[in-house]
C-alpha cells in the first residue's frame, strides 16, 4: 500500500478496468489501480522550440533562482509575463548579461507593470530586447537567432525558454474532464 512514483513516463490514456478500477497506460508500461490522482499543475508540459541544440544541458524551461546565473550570459526566449519576469530577474543579478528574444513584434500580452519595468531596463541598458526574432539553433557557446530576417549569433551560457506550456487537453477530455480555456488580459 502507499504511493508508488514512476518518473519520466507520460500518461497516454486512462481507461476503466472491466474488473474494477482503472488501467493507466504510459509511455513505458500499463498499470492497474483502484484510483487515479491527477497532479498535472497549471503549466502542463513546457512548449519546446523544436530547434537543433535544444537538448543541451544549458537549456531550461523555468527559472528557479536568478542568482544561479549571476555573472553569466543568459538568453531568455518568450514574450509573455513569465519570460519578461525571468529576463528582468536575471538582469538584476550583478554582472549578468541578458538578452530577451521574442518572435512577435511587440509584447502585447504582458501586464502594464511588466511593460514599464521592461522598458526601464531596456533604456538603462541592463537588458537587450530582440523582437521579431526566432531561434534557429543552439550550440554550446551561443544561439543562432534570426532577427527580422537576418541571422545573428548571441553568445550565452544558458537559455531559459518561457514559451508557455502544452496542456494535456485531449487526455483530460478522454477521461471525462471538461476543459474551459480562459484568456487573461493585460
Sequence of strands across the biggest β-sheet: 5-12-6-7-8
Major sheet attributes: 5 strands, parallel
Number of beta strands:
13
Query: What structural class should be given to the helix and strand makeup?
Result: alpha/beta
Q: What is the mean predicted local confidence, pLDDT?
A: 91
Rg, nearest Å: 20 Å
Please tally the helical runs, counting DSSP H or I stretches of 4 or more residues.
Answer: 3
Percentage of residues assigned to helices: 10-25%
| Bulk shape | elongated
Helix and strand sequence: EEEEEEHEHEEEEEEH
Write up this protein.
The strands form 4 sheets. Strands 5-12-6-7-8 form a 5-stranded parallel sheet, with helices on one face. Strands 1-2-3 form a 3-stranded antiparallel sheet, with no helix packed on it. Helices cover 16% and strands 31% of the residues. It is built from 3 helices and 13 strands. Helix 1 (81-91) packs parallel to helix 2 (112-124). The relative contact order is 0.19. The protein has 186 residues and is of the alpha/beta class. It has helices at residues 81-91, 112-124, 169-174; strands at 11-16, 22-26, 30-33, 45-46, 59-60, 73-77, 97-101, 128-130, 133-139, 142-147, 150-155, 158-161, 165-166. The chain is elongated, with a radius of gyration of 20 Å.
Sum this structure up briefly:
The protein is an alpha/beta fold and 186 residues long. It is built from three helices and 13 strands.
Keywords:
186 residues; alpha/beta; five-stranded parallel β-sheet; three-stranded antiparallel β-sheet; 3 helices; 13 strands
Describe the SSE topology.
Blueprint: E1 11-16, E2 22-26, E3 30-33, E4 45-46, E5 59-60, E6 73-77, H1 81-91, E7 97-101, H2 112-124, E8 128-130, E9 133-139, E10 142-147, E11 150-155, E12 158-161, E13 165-166, H3 169-174
Parallel strand pairs: 5-12, 6-7, 6-12, 7-8
Antiparallel strand pairs: 1-2, 2-3, 4-13, 9-10, 10-11
Helix pairs in contact: 1-2
